[in-house]
Design brief:
By secondary structure, this protein is α/β, with parallel strands linked by helices. It is about 35% helix and about 20% strand. It folds into 2 domains: about 130 residues, Rossmann fold (3-Layer(aba) Sandwich); about 260 residues, no CATH class. The strands form 3 sheets. A 7-stranded antiparallel sheet has the order 7-8-9-10-6-12-14, sandwiched between helices. The longest helix is centred in the middle third of the chain and has 28 residues.
Length: about 400
């Protein structure tokens, strides 16, 4: 079996080691062989990138005291519990009691290498240790991911076909989406017990977003969700009486009790004709807001339907891009630099993650998701730029 994960974890541990300036705790979970290969590769990459040396010590149990690491600017103690999960509880309890002593070692990075099914054990047995973690990487085998991506793609196509059928039933509605749409779809894998439709709707209704028009919003008007097939809810926010009859407020979404969700929405950039000509631009900042809030929805649903460690396969597709240029709208100031208009009409991107990673490393997940869009526009969104806009969106939610 290949030991190369395809879940977006590549580079995350190396980056954490490169940036470490004090004690740090990194947790890597997955198949034992994959975890060992991943840790060795990431540590080697970090050693090549850091100006100061890294010393690495592998062990199958936590030593009473850290081995001597004088002269090393960064000491990595990697504890491999892949073959000894039965001893994990006692080991974690011991580490939890020693957490303050561990944190005093400013050169230490502690890596816990665990089987995937034991990740929740850290939070349960060693809650104080868990609270000071720097990162969590969940590794998945390629064959597992490929199957999940295929199932998600099938779900997306079924939802899109259903939307096209609705448009055919209401021909004049098609004009509202004529300049293009963005879609988000995700699938929470391995739900232990699928919820009833009523329970699913209740969870969705009580899931709060970060903006005034959150993704998968549940209206109670004439456009309220309806049951269209066993285990499937559908909602189309389109009517002659709706208050906002523009593309960005005309969502179409579906949700399934098997943990699959789909959302189609028009562009903000096509919904303010008095300020921006429809079909001509794509904001540099708004895709961050939309992707970030959609990922937040996925994380919330995963936590409430199963657990924060459940795998989430997530995709987005931007359509109607051809001819658009990048703009700084709706921000003040001059337009962002652009090397010309999009040549491609549509772009699809996907990531494999989990609720824990989304909540703890949202800027990284958003950056991965938007990278194909940035590449097509020959642009880059600096991490600081992504963090700034996600921070603004979150502050508005709590302000």
């Amino acid at each position: 079996m290949s030991t190369t994960p395809v879940d977006g974890s590549a580079g995350r541990l190396a980056r954490a080691l490169e940036l470490a300036s004090g004690f740090s705790l990194c947790i890597v979970v997955g198949d034992s062989a994959m975890v060992r290969d991943y840790v060795a590769r990431e540590v080697a990459d970090a050693a090549r990138s850091r100006a100061e040396p890294i010393t690495v010590h592998y062990a199958s149990a936590a030593p009473r005291r850290a081995p001597d690491h004088r002269g090393a600017s960064r000491f990595v103690l990697a504890l491999d519990y892949g073959d000894r999960p039965h001893e994990l509880g006692e080991e974690l309890s011991s580490l939890n009691r020693r957490r303050d002593t561990l944190r005093e070692d400013k050169e230490l990075t502690l890596i816990l290498m665990l089987p995937a099914e034991e990740m929740s054990t850290v939070a349960e047995v060693a809650p104080d240790l868990w609270s000071i973690r720097s990162m969590v990487a969940v590794l998945s085998a390629p064959e597992d991911i490929e199957g999940e991506l295929h199932l998600l793609a099938q779900w997306e196509q079924r939802c899109r076909d259903a939307f096209e059928s609705r448009l055919n039933e209401t021909p004049h509605a098609r004009a509202r989406y004529r300049h293009g749409v963005v879609t988000f779809a995700y699938r929470i894998t391995s739900l232990p017990s699928p919820p009833t439709l009523r329970a699913l709707l209740e969870v969705m209704t009580n899931t709060e977003g970060w903006t005034g028009w959150p993704p998968w919003w549940v209206p109670t008007s004439t456009t309220a969700p309806r049951v269209v097939a066993p285990g499937i809810l559908e909602c189309w926010m389109y009517s002659d009486e709706q208050m906002f009859s523009d593309p960005v407020h005309s969502d179409y979404w579906r949700a399934s009790t098997d943990g699959s969700f789909y959302l189609l929405r028009g562009y903000d950039e096509d919904s303010a004709p008095d300020r921006v000509e429809p079909g001509r631009v794509l904001s540099r900042s708004l895709p961050i807001w939309r992707a970030g809030e959609a990922l937040h929805h996925a994380a919330t649903m995963a936590e409430r339907l199963t657990s924060a460690h459940a795998r989430v396969v997530f995709s987005t597709r931007w359509e109607g891009l051809h001819g658009r240029t990048i703009t700084s709208w709706p921000e003040a100031g001059p337009s962002a630099p652009s090397r010309g208009a999009f040549e491609l009409g549509s772009i699809r991107s996907s990531v494999v993650t989990n609720a824990t990673e989304i909540e703890e490393s949202l800027p990284d997940v958003v950056a991965r998701l938007l990278r194909p869009l940035d590449d097509a526009a020959l642009q880059e969104r600096p991490r600081a730029f992504i963090e700034h806009h996600l921070g603004r969106m979150r502050s508005r939610a709590v302000g």
